[in-house]
Design brief:
mainly alpha, 20 helices, 2 strands
Length: 486
């Protein structure tokens, strides 16, 4: 374990699962104590991830292994390396911030103790996906991630939450089953599900093409890549805002992790034969998501369609199979996660203070809500690829990878699409904060402290990652150089 004596990865993974029932029970007696317990439980994984930064930065990895089901040669293996670290950082930080945000935003909602317990389980499931070293364990956490998120949408969502939650469950579970069939097929062929062993055993046999397709379907559904995207606008728009932060900012990135760790890491020989198809799907996702966002009047629905568009950029970068493009795709996972989480938190402030999310019924809020206005402007501009913000750096790398791979026309289309991104974000910000007010501003105020603090942290990250990104880029580039084939 490279000098680490404590089982830090096990603590990272299981703390929130173990704290979940304790938080539920303590909430019944004291909301304040339950909130503090939930915040501590979500902070521990983040603090460990930060503590291990130097280890990963120096090119080392942390591995823990325990026997799980010996009869099937299954081990509970956990790995934090240059591939899983950016994802673990995103999940643990956003989970921590969403927990803090929830304490104020959700305080008057029904079933609050149950909500907070499920939130911790949801966070733990996402962390498990990126730390697991065998495919069956990855699938277990994939499902653990799905079940609490379904209840969080169905029981605390808006609109028609039961129907929307059911649609979300059916789509994502169908994708999970496709991935499960691929995993079973791998076990039948190679007799193991351990990812390090499979990296040596997997050959270019014809069966692997179909396995690739099955696992890609599972990942594409989670990423909401066209044509597997139709569940996302409803689920992300109608989920309670802290859950929208995690769904759009974090959870859909676990699909990208599967692309990086399994499809590129184990099946790179198949990627060239599918490059054109994957690039076209990514471009359609970019353009379709952007055009749909352009015509939305609901703030959260606009942000949801934007996520479809941005996942197209991430898939585009990963599919280039160029070291710069792959690094850009992974870096954009972080930049989009932080910026989109910030934007959903801003939408939550509008809902919490004004009980309104229709941009045509808002206006003139900049003077009364300066923090929220700055946050929404910076988040939108970062995702639109505006220098010197983080999104510019990652999109620049994605486009560089596209040109290096000879995908000149496709890359030009992707670059042109950034104008659409800037268009719908500037339209939204102008309508919400700068047009003529359509309501009484005398009682309007900015975000309360427990909502403003997570937003402030994300504002700093959105700005800092634009020019002080060398440490995390170093980690990401190590993975990208190992995965690149050109």
């Amino acid at each position: 374990m490279d000098g680490v004596t404590l089982p830090l990865l096990s603590i990272t993974l299981f703390t929130q699962l173990l704290f979940s029932p304790a938080v539920y029970l303590s909430m019944k007696r004291s909301k304040l104590f339950g909130d503090l317990l939930a915040i501590v439980a979500s902070f521990i994984p983040f603090s460990i991830t930060i503590y291990l930064f130097n280890t990963i930065y120096n090119g080392l990895s942390i591995y823990e292994e325990y026997w799980w089901i010996p009869a099937f040669k299954l081990k509970l293996g956990l790995l934090l390396d240059s591939t899983s670290y950016p994802f673990s950082l995103l999940i643990s930080l956003m989970g921590f911030l969403a927990t803090i945000y929830s304490t104020k935003y959700m305080e008057h909602e029904h079933g609050y103790p149950t909500y907070m317990a499920l939130l911790l389980m949801f966070n733990a499931g996402m962390i498990g996906v990126v730390l697991a070293t065998n495919l069956f364990l990855l699938y277990i956490f994939w499902e653990l991630m799905l079940i609490p998120s379904y209840f969080l949408i169905a029981y605390w969502g808006t609109g028609k939450p039961r129907i929307i939650g059911f649609k979300y469950f059916i789509f994502t579970h169908a994708g999970a089953l496709a991935m499960l069939f691929g995993i079973i097929w791998i076990y039948v062929l190679y007799g193991t599900l351990e990812i390090p062993q499979l990296s040596i055993l997997i050959t270019s046999s014809p069966e692997n093409f179909y396995i690739f397709i099955l696992i890609f379907i599972g990942a594409a559904v989670k990423m909401a890549i066209f044509p597997f995207h139709t569940w996302l606008p409803d689920a992300h728009a109608e989920a309670p805002t802290p859950i929208s932060v995690l769904l759009s900012g974090v959870m859909i990135k676990t699909g990208a992790y599967v692309v990086v760790r399994i499809l590129i890491g184990l099946y790179s020989s198949i990627m060239p034969s599918l490059t054109s198809l994957l690039i076209i799907l990514s471009l359609i996702s970019m353009i379709w998501g952007g055009l749909m966002a352009m015509v939305q009047i609901d703030v959260k629905r606009l942000l949801a369609y934007s996520s479809i568009s941005q996942m197209g950029y991430i898939l585009f970068g990963l599919t280039t199979m160029d070291s710069i493009g792959i690094a850009g795709g992974i870096f954009h996972i972080l930049n989009h996660g932080f910026a989109k989480g910030l934007l959903f938190m801003c939408s939550g402030v509008l809902i919490h203070i004004l009980n309104e999310r229709d941009i045509n019924k808002l206006g003139g809020l900049a003077s009364r809500m300066p923090l929220t206005a700055i946050a929404m402007l910076l988040g939108g501009l970062s995702i639109a690829g505006t220098p010197p913000l983080g999104g510019f750096a990652s999109e620049w790398m994605i486009f560089g990878g596209g040109f290096n791979s000879g995908l000149t026309i496709y890359t030009a289309i992707a670059i042109a699409n950034t104008a659409i991104t800037a268009g719908y974000y500037l339209r939204m910000i102008r309508a919400v904060f700068f047009l003529q007010p359509k309501h009484d501003l005398s009682k309007v105020h900015d975000a309360p402290i427990s909502m403003a603090m997570p937003m402030s942290i994300l504002i700093l990250l959105v700005v800092i990652l634009g020019f002080l990104n060398y440490p995390i880029i170093t980690i990401i580039s190590r993975t990208a150089s190992q995965l690149a084939v050109i």
